[in-house]
Amino acid sequence: MSLAVLSIAVLGRQGNPLFLESYSQRQGGTADLKWHYAAHTALDFFDERGESSSSYGYQTNTRINFVLALALADAVIRDVDVKTIFRAIHNAYIAHLSNPFTAAESDNPAVLAAPIRSRKFAAAMAAIAGRAPATGGE
């Protein structure tokens, strides 16, 4: 895949961020806030194009949302490439939930799911984005 992934977000049933990582060249401060904002606004419009990025969304049957921000380039963004990335994100999320030490999200709407702090999940997202995994976590 030749798509430049700028950000990957996993949002819980109530829209709370479970995982959000920036893979753009600029990180920290307002650069990271930009991706938090993009992830939450993409919940309303799953196929949103901005000036320099394009956001896509995917909702699982359990109402978990994946938001992907791609860099707009001269290359055409094909649906099959976006679907392949979402399939990989979904498979990594399922593998994360399959860990017996991972707490499942509650059905109680008053209780928000805990953020994903797994190094293995972060490394899988970095691999999907085509970047070296970040340090920290677990």
UniProtKB/TrEMBL annotation:
GO terms for cellular component: cytoplasm. One of its GO terms (biological process) is endoplasmic reticulum to Golgi vesicle-mediated transport. It comes from the Eukaryota. InterPro entries: Longin-like_dom_sf, Sedlin, TRAPPC2L. Pfam families: Sedlin_N. CDD domains: TRAPPC2L. Belongs to the TRAPP small subunits family. Sedlin subfamily. This is Trafficking protein particle complex subunit 2-like protein. It comes from Rhodotorula paludigena.
